[in-house]
Amino acid sequence: MEAFIDPPKSIPFFLKLGIWFAEKVTGRRMLPARILAWYPKAAIGSGALEALVAHQDGKLDKRMLQLVRMSASFAAACPFCIDMNSYEHEAAGISADEVLALRGQLALEGVDSFSVRERLAIAYARLVSQTPLKFHPDFIEQVKSHFNEREMVILASTAAQVNYWARLIQALGIPPAGFTE
């Protein structure tokens, strides 16, 4: 499967440097970064957004934030995002049953390994990923009773970041990069 457009033949040096770094870190050809070279401002802005993603912060550990990224990826139905954000989920302590629950193939409540905070974070990521956005006040009160303000911003911005990439990547027809192969 090919993207809707090919990367430009000539990529500015400063973007080549960023692409080289992204590909070194991921071990994959990063077609999104290459295609964004058609509009360097979008490439730089997207690169800055990606460079500042939270991987853990206080009580929001790697597992919690990967659950949020995976939930948003499945909710947005983005094959590239699912591939990238599900990569090495076992290393973050995410089980096969938990992945099935994130995909909607098992009920969240039926998977005992999720904590209350994780269930709330997953539900919040799903809500951030739906259109139109609707947040019931009772649900938000639950979230606020389990997460502080900083944590809520991190959860919301993490899910929103996945949604940004999902829409951009799908709008350009970019296929999965092969992280989970």
Task: Explain the layout of strands and helices.
Blueprint (H helix, E strand, L loop, with lengths): L12 H14 L4 H6 L3 H12 L10 H15 L2 H8 L9 H7 L13 H13 L8 H10 L2 H23 L10
Write a brief structural summary.
The chain is an all-alpha fold and 181 residues long. It is 60% helix and 0% strand. The protein folds into two domains: 13-51, no CATH class; 62-171, AhpD-like (Up-down Bundle), CATH 1.20.1290.10.
Observed structural traits:
181 residues; mainly alpha; AhpD-like; 2 domains; 9 helices; globular
Supply Rg: 17 Å
CATH topology (level 3) name of the largest domain? AhpD-like
**Discrete helix count:** 9
CATH A-level architecture of the largest domain: Up-down Bundle
CATH hierarchy, class of the largest domain: Mainly Alpha
* Arithmetic mean pLDDT: 95
Q: Report the helical percentage.
A: 55-70%
Low-confidence stretches: none
Please provide the ordered H/E string of secondary-structure elements: HHHHHHHHH
Q: Compute the number of strand runs.
A: 0
Identify the overall geometry.
Answer: globular
Biggest sheet architecture: none
CATH homologous superfamily grouping of the largest domain:
AhpD-like
The end-to-end distance, rounded to whole angstroms, is 15 Å
